[in-house]
Amino acid sequence: MKPNPISMGRKALVQHLQSITAANGYSTNAGHNVKTGWVNEVLETEKENLPLICVQKGKDLAPKPGPDGLIKYSGFSVVGVISAPLTDYEDAIDDLERDMLLALSPTSGARQRWMPVGITGITVGAPEQYPPGQGEPTARVLIPVHLHTIIER
Computed over its alpha carbons, how large is the radius of gyration of the chain? Predict the structure, then answer.
C-alpha cells in the first residue's frame, strides 16, 4: 500500500513548525510545543506549557482535476497561543505571528524543502489575532493554510 500523501503532508507540516526556535533564528521557542487537535482541548492539558502551536484541521478547498488524479487542498488552522495579560500582550503575539508566517510562507518560485513528495505547495491565508479577555489568560493568532496535495489514481 502506498503512503497516504494527505497524512504525509500533515505530519511534515507539524515537523516543520517544530523548527520555530530561537536556535533557528526565530523570536520564540514555540516549536518546542507543537500539537495536533482542537486548540481548546489541547489547552486543557498544555496551559502550563506556553507558547504553543496547534495544528487543527480546517476547511479544505474544492479539489481540482489533475493529470492522472486530482489536486486536494487540505485545510488547516495553525493556531499560536501565548500566556499574556490583557494589558501587555501585543508584542508577544506579534513575535509569534511573525515566526509562524516566516515558517509557513513559501519562498517565491521555490519548492519548500520540508514538503514531502506529493505536496506541491502551500497557500497561507491572512492571520487573525485574538487578545486575552473575558477570563481567558491567553492571546492567540490563527493562520489558515492549505497544502496542495496530489492524489494519484
Answer: 16
pLDDT digits (tens, 9 = 90+) for 103-150: 999 877 677 889 998 899 999 999 999 998 877 789 999 999 999 999
Helix (H, G, I), strand (E, B) or coil at 51: coil
Cell of 72: 486536494
String of DSSP letters for 91-153 = HHHHHHHHHHHHHHSPPTTS--TTSPTTEEEEEE---EEE--BTTB-EEEEEEEEEEEEEEE-
Pair 114, 16: CB distance under 8 Å: yes
SS3 83: strand
Label residue 55 by pLDDT band (50, 70, 90): very high
Closest Cα partner for 95 from 34, 28, 32, 140?
28
Please tell me whether residue 16 adopts helix, strand or coil conformation: helix
For 90, other C-beta atoms within 10 Å of its C-beta total: 12
Burial zone of 48 (CB within 10 Å; 0-12 exposed, 13-18 middle, 19+ buried): exposed
